[in-house]
Fold each of these.
Amino acid sequence: MNSTSPVIIAVDGPSASGKSTVSRRAAKTLGFLYVDSGAMYRGITWKCVKEGIDPRDTQAVTNLLIRIKMELLVKDGAVTYLIDGEDPGQEIRGQAVRESVADIAAQQPVRVYIVSKLRDMATFGSLVMEGRDIGSVVFPDTPFKYYLDADPEERARRRAAELQATEGATDQAAVLSSLRKRDQKDSSRATAPLQIALGAHIINSTGMSIDQVVDVIITDLRAAGVIP
Ligand code: DC
């Protein structure tokens, strides 16, 4: 790594492990760009839903990938995208996308397409990228890999609090059961399953504050001489 090559920080882990909050804050502290790779899979899912494409129909999804234009841009300290000139905004967080995104993310052509876009983002500068396969597949050569985890009950509590804020009353037991199902689906799929990347620094954030987790990353970068 020379002084001009971008630094990539890979933050992987299961859903509601605190990846987004930690990655955003670390990016802001370091002056790096933040990337939510899950939002890319959600974007493709959004386009499929919009066009009535079955997320399990590999041929139809492949045809869609050939047809669409996914353009990358930098906005508010993050790398984001437009699909055919449109910003899907909060629609990627809605129920229709939520229900189909795991099927889309399991499609091999989608993974090839998104991984290539994620790698292209390094041309914008140094990145903090969160996802499931960033340290294992997208940027396996980066020395800065983190696997963020938290106990399932803690993750369900965090997710329920988020849903409470955005959608009203939530049932924590139902959230826990849905989280466990998603973990199982993400970890057992044939293509790029959620796994701990070789050499990743494992952080169990149960009982840790966001700043404490960010500090682990900052301390590593300081020790490596990336920041003063
Ligand atoms: O992090 P998220 O909930 O927004 O992710 C949405 C879906 O995309 C989820 O099913 C996991 C999947 N995903 C993935 O397979 N690989 C990534 N790098 C990021 C997300």
Note: The first helix runs from residue 19 to 30.
Amino acid sequence: MLHDLPSVVTDELQRVHDELVQVNEGGLADYIPPLSEVDPTLFGLAICTPDGGFAAAGDHDVAFTLQSISKCFTLALALVDHGLEGVLDRVGVEPSGESYNAVSLEEGTGRPDNPMINAGAIVTCSLVEASSSAERFDRVLGMLSSCAGRELDVDENVFEQELATADRNRALAYFMRSAGSLTTDVDETLEVYLRQCAVLVTAGDLAVMAATLAGGGRNPLTNEQVFSSTVARHVLTIMATCGMYDASGQWLLRVGSPAKSGVSGGIITASPAQFGLGLYRPLLDDRGNSVRAVRACEQLAERFTWHALAQPDDRQLPAVLDEAAD
Ligand code: GLU
């Protein structure tokens, strides 16, 4: 079960929310109507601690599609099924420095650069053990639901429209099949990948999913140990270097916690043993990251000094929570 975090955290989320309400920069993703026609004023934030403390502000219970954030959890499933070396045989872990849908494969091996770009995520989908693609997607949805602590659904309209406009992803998949890095059927694997992108979540769900990573694979809402702490560490590491498209370096410098964003405007970020944060704001910058959500994380990171490389004594969140508990 979740419990309320102290008002000092709730108030801070609300303050950041209210302060950023005037920031209206950015544009909606426009490659399919369900994304280009979304209400651009939506803005939600939620935080969840690994022991189940929860606080939220704004539109934290409005549903939107996971898009690229799903890549973290399919990676977790591939790691569960194959271990780190098994996954590394098929996909790299280096930031590509190129856009998320770039056609760049490692010379010699044909491996995509990392699991956070589309090519790498299509390969991690193919690595999920299953005897059919329906079973493969059921396992992906099961993993996403276990991390959210509730049964998630697919937005079939978004899925259909993704499928109808997937020429580039299909080309990537064929390219990888010809290079030998994708060994499953192109159309079936693409459907699994696009269906996971179309899974509906709220910012509140994202906070719980991020807190599952922060808690070493244990969901704070259900207490289920969804995957091992080693898998959580590997996923967080790859999020830290590759999760924010080609702004990952800037993000690590200014916010300092592993993160993943998606083209619908969602962001998750997590810090081991400290917190998971989920945000939603559909207006994106030119790298595909939500402008307001990035600003919110910068402000919260500064307020709570949660940077992964900060000195432990400088971290404010544990102190704030301890103080409130006294
Ligand atoms: N469905 C999108 C694609 O694969 C997801 C992109 C994203 O969120 O970065 O093109």
Note: The domain at 3-67+201-221+231-325 is CATH 3.40.710.10 (Beta-lactamase).
Amino acid sequence: MRANNNNKARRSRQPVSVVTGAAGFLGSHLTDLLLARGHRVIGIDNFITGNVQNIAHLGGNPAFKFIQQDVTEFLFLNEPVDFVWHFASPASPFDYLNFPIQTLKVGSLGTHKALGLAKEKKARFLLASTSEIYGDPLAHPQPEEYWGNVNPIGPRGCYDEAKRFAEALTMAYHREHKVATRIVRIFNTYGPRMRLNDGRVVPAFVSQALKNKPVTVFGEGKQTRSFCYVSDLIEGIYRLMMSRYDLPMNIGNPAEMTVRQFAEEIIHATKSRSRIVFKPLPQDDPKQRRPDITKARTILKWEPKVPLARGLTDTIAYFRTKV
Ligand code: UDP
């Protein structure tokens, strides 16, 4: 009876979402989408890699509340919550090399706190997981059933293992506490609000090209990635949260290319005079990566829509204002 009353109360008011990592690249785009779809949003961030500029436009919006807090600490909210979107984490190889312990803590302790909040509020929970849980994959493209090939003690281990732990904890809360959970495995994503100096390939190449400086391709540039535009990704994640699917799901763009081809695309799109230079390949850099998105296509009726050229135009326009 109480559950029925709770459900009725929920339906009769505006949905409330908590977004951890709300000042980050993905967290801030997700916050915008939730506000546009009528949610009230409580954003949490400690600005370790997030940027206040990403949420500055929400100042004065009565549907948005911001709490500056480290999500590894106890989360107390004196109000109802319907959805918890756990996006807080350093997310670029450069960032998690700089903050290995914080990365491990937010993936483990932070996920524990965010799940605890969801359990307490009887909210639905979504974990932002990653293609990194597949490590340097031996299966290609990567389906969700693939268990991965991760070096736990290498430089990427702090991120990969934290996210693997986060997935395990999410499933444990689902099975033991019956929390309604979702797990999205996010593949390489790009768009406005990426941090210029986060070391990832898109900000690195675009800023180098805009300055007509050498474009630094690691290794021989034969490693592959596939790049999803941020609006496509966020739409897929929203659909996953609203679906009934509680096992991990890949969201990403299956259009695969080598890093060298990508460098050429960027030089072309920026009309740059840059040339390509080759630098050593970082340890454990995955040789190939491409999502199998069969599940997203069939269950969510989702697939990416924004072609690379269009996504790059918007991204480059954003970076022009920053370099
Ligand atoms: N990369 C590169 N030059 C750079 C930055 C990255 O060649 O200045 C390569 C990197 O070695 C990797 C790919 O681009 O193979 C994507 O790197 P990113 O850091 O964006 O993320 P990852 O997919 O490795 O998590």
Note: The chain has a mean pLDDT of 96.
